[in-house]
# Entry
Amino acid sequence: MTSALPPPEPRNQVDDPSSPVARFGADEPLMLDAGVPLAPWQIAYQTYGTLNAERSNAILVCHALTGDQHVANPNPVTGKPGWWTTMVGPSKPLDTDRFFVICANVIGGCMGTTGPASTDPRTGQPYALDFPVITIRDMVRAQAALIDRLGIESLFCVVGGSMGGMQVLQWAASYPERVFAALPIATAARHSAQNIAFHEVGRQAVMADPDWRGGRYLVEGTRPAKGLAVARMGAHITYLSEMALHRKFGRNYQDRSAPTFSFDADFQIESYLRYQGLSFVERFDANSYLYVTRAMDYFDLAAEHGGSLARAFKGSATRFCVISFSSDWLFPTADSRAIVHALNAAAASVAFVEVESDKGHDAFLLDEPEMFAAARGFIDAAARARGLS
Amino acid sequence: MTSALPPPEPRNQVDDPSSPVARFGADEPLMLDAGVPLAPWQIAYQTYGTLNAERSNAILVCHALTGDQHVANPNPVTGKPGWWTTMVGPSKPLDTDRFFVICANVIGGCMGTTGPASTDPRTGQPYALDFPVITIRDMVRAQAALIDRLGIESLFCVVGGSMGGMQVLQWAASYPERVFAALPIATAARHSAQNIAFHEVGRQAVMADPDWRGGRYLVEGTRPAKGLAVARMGAHITYLSEMALHRKFGRNYQDRSAPTFSFDADFQIESYLRYQGLSFVERFDANSYLYVTRAMDYFDLAAEHGGSLARAFKGSATRFCVISFSSDWLFPTADSRAIVHALNAAAASVAFVEVESDKGHDAFLLDEPEMFAAARGFIDAAARARGLS
# Structure
């Protein structure tokens, strides 16, 4: 009659990221906003296309909360296509025949970059909660070190949606001279109270799972799969619009036309959410989920600049294109407008497109021709301005 | 550094509801939509004011998901004031100097009415998941039996918000001749896919708690407090508007002005949600939470009438007043408009008020003068029409 979620097989991509890895030794610490150095550390990344002789055609793609570096190649864990093959590839808006596209797993992640599942050199065991709390700016610092390592002085463009968009904004604020063009999508310059609230519920779901073991599940041989699945289910609702849920599932029953009067997944939406929870825990580390959600919560770009978002972009020569989606209630268009207003106040170059879509926040990952057209137009114009063929 | 939620003391109000109780024996079963009889059964209720000689001044208040019968007296479990003292009392819109106000704990609840924590006569142990799945219509059937027991043929008015509003609509559809006036607030004639989704996440959080024990926690002496607290935290977000969260909490830190770089409740919104979760588990039964959310999920009044909501109200002489709140995204105004359209199509008498409020779904429980004025005007006019002084 009931159906609790079974635990999946554990995965650990830290030692086998199936990607190139840039390693930084004890003498090259990553200085974190928390005030502590991280060393040694590493960052796993993928590249697509060819860096030109002038090293002027590099695009950095920043991934979202549960994304990774496998933006346009099959994911080694799930076997599924890369998460943004609609945007990145030959003849796509981020055209790998013209541009050198880089995507790196974020600091705190679990796909090869140093995170809470990595080995703490002081103990020889996984960091777990001894890993320092990281921020969006720390993620960007790590990416900048990677870009240095790759010998790239200035990025042609930084692109990303959701948490990826936060990184785009942070790049533009922290390293304006290294960002020719910036394309933040479905994002905000600060995480809202409601979004912090949803994240907190997800973290509490993970921490309430006794198999979380105070974060030490890797050492103790357990896995907080049920808690993480519940967290993912709740988060997933926020990625879709009410309209998208209604259209996809409505009140349709699963495999029958009447209720079973039970707690089985009677409705299709229930079955869908359970599947989302179960498949997520097979590919994501629970502690990484805590750390990366926390980084988003702490994000408030204006706070770094005396409360003025415009000051974050003052004097910037970067050209911006801001894209939002009309049915996105997690990062609503008002958040994007606030970015645009700040850029206007900073006299920066900015275009703004609100894409009409009923698909909610997830629209940035989906087939949205208006987004593709806006991105393509912006990228092509920026490429001409930079003298790229 | 971390803070999982501690389990509270268990409570069981089934045997001590601190209320009058109407008991129905083995020969008076409650026939349920699931197709099974429930017997024996009981329903706990409170009354306020005096029934007049004509028995024509009775108002039934229907409570929401986690409400109870203690609408206008101190709650015996929490010691807090009744949950709707703004609406019910002397000189209040539901004026207990003029009307006889009744409120009963719903079937499946945990404040004295038969529910999953009640003793199963077949086993002598709590029903747990052997309790039949109940529906909104079952709740209303039980209330009708109580009204019979109280010797009331026809209710002057049935009133309720959220799940209480669903019961109001069900009353008007099932017993039109027994409902003179109906006041559904912040509700819908069917539960949306998004709302089913949020409920399912809450149920999975409860069921993922190993202390839930397949529902047998009362027998086994455990309590799925952590899972239930997570469920409540998630649900609570949906009761508030993004604007209300922003105004009340924003990104304010708890007791300090800077982040702690930890997983403590750094933000005020986190501390608030944790408190909501903890205080809830002290007063509510986890299995009741499963059953009552399930009843809401199954609610689809049109489905009982061949898919036509208008048909549910055809020929009704009941006068309706439908109230919604502009910032309620759980039961948005569009849901109330659908009710009004159906009532119009059924040629029923209906008034509609959308109250401007930024407080979200919870507004119906709060100080909303426009709601009070609308309710008072509607009740007073209906009382005149019924010849009540």
